[in-house]
Design a protein that fits this description.
It is a single chain. 86% of the residues lie in helices and 0% in strands. It is mostly helical. It is elongated, with a radius of gyration of 19 Å.
Length: 129
């Protein structure tokens, strides 16, 4: 039971890193599947990415910049909203408010992950057809 408890504590401590790692993997899969789909004669559906996807290196640079921005945002949110604020004397409703804001940041990250799961699945279906 103690091992399970330690595992849960570790998961809670590093949940954001697990989510960010999974998002990074999805970014890579998106680049690969988009590049393959474009090479097979398909077109990019995202109007904002059309200028960038023709060059896989530029596509990679855009995704890396986006990933770094997301990583910094999530880490900063954790540091400011949870870690630093938990050390200060706050009322319970203030702590709950800060934890709720952080939960919304994590929820946005989960939404982004589910969006990229959809994108990679769509790209894979296009490639396989």
């Amino acid at each position: 039971m103690a091992i399970l408890s330690e595992g849960i504590v570790t998961l809670k401590k590093y949940h954001r890193h697990i989510l960010l790692g999974f998002l990074g993997l999805l970014f890579v899969l998106d680049i690969v599947t988009t590049t393959v789909a474009l090479q097979r004669g398909n077109s990019e559906q995202n109007q904002f990415m059309i200028p960038f996807v023709q060059d896989p290196v530029l596509h990679l640079v855009i995704k890396v910049v986006a990933y770094i921005f997301l990583f910094i945002t999530v880490e900063r949110a954790y540091h400011v909203l949870i870690r630093v604020e938990s050390r200060k004397k706050k009322s319970s409703w203030e702590r709950m408010f800060l934890q709720t804001i952080y939960a919304l940041v994590i929820l946005a990250l989960v939404y982004l992950i589910s969006f990229y799961v959809y994108v990679v699945a769509q790209n894979t279906m296009i490639i396989s057809s």
